[in-house]
Design goal:
This protein is mostly beta strands. It has one helix and five strands. The longest helix is centred in the middle third of the chain and has 5 residues. The two termini are about 25 Å apart.
Amino acid sequence: MNSAFAVFDKTTGNAVLGPVDGNQIWKGFGGECESENDGDVGVLFDKAAKRWYFAQLALGPNFSGPFFYCVAVSTTNDATG
C-alpha cells in the first residue's frame, strides 16, 4: 500500500522531505481525510498554475466506509510547503 510520500531534489536525488504519511496533508482539518491513511497517494504538478495537486483515498475505519477521495491543492509551487 502506498501510504506515504517524499520530496526529492531533482539535481542531487537527496530527500528534502519525508517520507511522510499521506494523511498529514490534511492535519488540522479533521474528518476522514485527516484520520485515515489508506494509501494510493497521488501527486501531480500543474506547470501552468504552478501548483501541486495531492489526492488520497480515505476508506473509513477498517475499510468499512464511509468512503472519501481527499484532494488538496497547494498555495505555492514549493513541494515541501
